[in-house]
Design a protein that fits this description.
The complex is a heterodimer. Chain A contains 8 helices and 10 strands. Chain A has 2 domains: 38 residues; 181 residues, Alpha-Beta Plaits (2-Layer Sandwich). Chain B is 76% helix and 0% strand. The chains are: A alpha+beta, B mainly alpha.
């Protein structure tokens, strides 16, 4: 019996050691992969908007229209005018909005031909040569960021000025924001301005309940709107 | 206030396309019931099945045409077959629709050749009804995925779409038999019963959907604010659902054929109104929970309505052509002939 107990103890010890080794390996791999993601060579483009700084000048909207040749009646970015409270305590503020280039976009899943897709750098792009104009992605977007191009009859939206990014430039709206309310950059770069702002401020996203995981962050939403998107 | 890009993207043509698909799916279910219906007068059953099948095919053939008109660039839709996205329900919807069309056409050819056996008819009906119901389920499922439209983003939508086919299919069948002037009492009896079940189920599901919507509609505009009171309460509920259901249940005696056709007609109008209120009504609610601005609502009618009318006209055209080439009327002659024989015997 004693020999049997000793053998069983040895087997148990071996099993525990193996399990321990396995768990340590898994944890190490997890940490490595997380760090790898955090300091990835591939950028993850995003934007942070400080609504307290926005003065509603619409320079972002005008520059976007001009830069991307956006047709009349539709917008890649816009600024919503919001009011809170009643006179004489009424407060007016502005909410700049654009495509959120979500981490879990609902638009790409419903596109029947894969014309809208997510790039490695996180940008949700539209391949207009493949788009059939069914409009499913427009209906699936909870932010109203997409539109049917009245001229081309295909879907279009903010591309984070991908043509400018390829030339090492920033997005037109952030470049032209007079109050520097919009900051664009690489979320994966710990030294980028956007990352530092996000790390040091309370940021919120619009409609987080949709599970889309937007990559456009807002500062000051809770102070002006109580966090609600109306 | 609504968002600047918001508009009625899916207008009356989509309403028509979905309504016609619902009617065709309902007719496929009626043809399935008729293929299993036991009656001594086999000719009458065969002819009723033929009428249901011809109407289903005629209506169904207009469905992809309206869809193509809606895309404004119909030939680019062929792209779906070459680079279909497996995560999109639309890909599967198109495959189901194509298979359904093929089966319908096969049935028409078989009717024309007079090569349909009882077993073959059953098999065709099972496949057509399954594909039809799958297609309407897909339509409801597609809406239920749309996070941008709060009124669609509901798990009840596919069930509502599925159930609404049952009563609507029987209603079109009642219109169809009056077009062919073929009133067989035993068949009308079974279709009438099926219609009561369908409309009753629809009433139940729509009540649940309505209650659930009102429960979640704290910050969402009501039917009145959207300007849909008449089409919702008046046409969809009162004329298209409660009135035909009440007549079918309360009037126990054999109904006049004209009254039956009228009940069929108002139920079909109710089915259209239901789709209108779902599709257009859903889009009238902005993502900001307000009513869409009047400028954004201009796309409800206009070209969209012309496309829809064209689609309905095309369905009628297909029905006329199919009725002319199929030998349904010759079945009447042989049926009369056999009944005369029986009388003489």
């Amino acid at each position: 019996m004693k020999e049997g107990d000793a053998k069983m103890n040895q087997t148990r010890r071996k099993f525990l050691l193996t399990l321990n080794g396995f768990l340590v390996t898994v944890a190490a791999a997890g940490t490595l992969s997380f760090e790898g993601k955090a300091a990835s060579d591939t950028p993850r483009w995003g934007m942070v908007i400080d609504v307290r700084k926005c003065v509603g000048c619409m320079a972002c909207r005008a520059s976007c229209k001009s830069e991307n040749n956006v047709p009349l009646g539709v917008h890649r970015t816009w600024v919503e005018e919001q009011e809170k409270g009643a006179y004489p305590q009424a407060v007016q503020f502005y909410l700049p909005a654009l495509c959120n280039h979500c981490d879990n976009p609902s638009c790409t899943k419903v596109c029947p031909v894969g014309a809208t897709y997510q790039r490695k750098d996180g940008i949700v792009a539209v391949d207009q040569s493949a788009c059939i104009g069914c409009g499913a992605c427009i209906q699936a977007c909870p932010y109203g960021a997409r539109y049917m191009d009245p001229v081309k009859k295909v879907v279009d939206k903010c591309s984070f000025c991908v043509h400018r990014l390829e030339k090492g430039l920033s997005v037109a709206c952030a470049e032209n924001c007079v109050a520097k309310a919009r900051v664009f950059g690489d979320l994966n770069d710990p030294n980028s301005e956007i990352r530092k702002i996000i790390d040091t401020n309370t940021v919120m996203t619009l409609k987080p309940e949709t599970g889309n995981e937007p990559r456009v962050f807002y500062i000051g939403l809770e102070s002006v709107m109580g966090g609600a998107f109306q | 206030m609504s968002l600047p890009n918001e508009t009625i993207l899916w207008g009356v043509e989509v309403v028509t396309y979905e309504s016609l698909a619902t009617l065709a799916a309902g007719l496929a279910v009626v043809s399935l019931i008729l293929s299993y219906f036991k009656n001594n007068d086999l000719q009458a059953v065969n002819k009723s099945w033929g009428i249901a099948w011809i109407f289903m095919t005629g209506i169904l053939f207009a469905v992809p045409v309206i869809l193509g008109l809606h895309l404004e660039q119909p030939f680019r839709s062929i792209t779906i077959f070459f680079r279909g996205n497996p995560t999109s329900p639309m890909l599967y919807g198109v495959i189901i629709l194509m298979a359904w069309l093929a089966i319908s056409l096969y049935g028409i050819v078989a009717i024309k050749k007079d090569s349909l056996t009882k077993q073959k008819r059953k098999t065709l009906s099972i496949i057509a009804a399954s594909l039809g119901l799958l297609f309407v389920l897909y339509l409801g499922f597609l809406l239920s995925l749309m996070k941008g439209i709060s009124a669609w983003y509901s798990s009840i939508k596919p069930i509502q779409y599925l159930v609404s086919t049952l009563g609507a299919g029987s209603a079109v069948f009642l219109i169809a038999i009056s077009v062919f002037r073929f009133f067989e009492e035993s068949i009308i009896k079974i279709v009438r019963l099926w219609m009561i079940i369908g409309l009753g189920a629809s009433l139940l599901i729509k009540s649940i959907a309505g209650l659930s919507a009102s429960y979640y509609a704290e910050n969402v505009p009501g039917i009145g604010e959207l300007g849909l009171s008449f089409s919702y309460y008046g046409i969809e509920w009162l004329i298209g659902l409660i009135l035909p259901l009440a007549v079918l249940i309360l009037v126990r005696s054999n109904l006049n054929n004209k009254l039956l056709s009228l009940i069929g007609l108002i139920t079909v109008i109710g089915a259209f109104a239901e789709k209108y209120n779902i599709i257009i009504g859903g889009q009238l609610i902005s993502r900001t929970s307000n009513v869409l601005s009047l400028d954004a609502q201009q796309h409800v009618w206009g070209t969209s309505a012309i496309h829809a009318l064209g689609g309905i006209a095309l369905a009628v055209f297909f029905l006329i052509v199919l009725s002319m080439i199929s030998p349904v009327n010759s079945v009447t002659t042989s049926s009369n002939h056999s009944s005369n024989k029986k009388v003489l015997g």
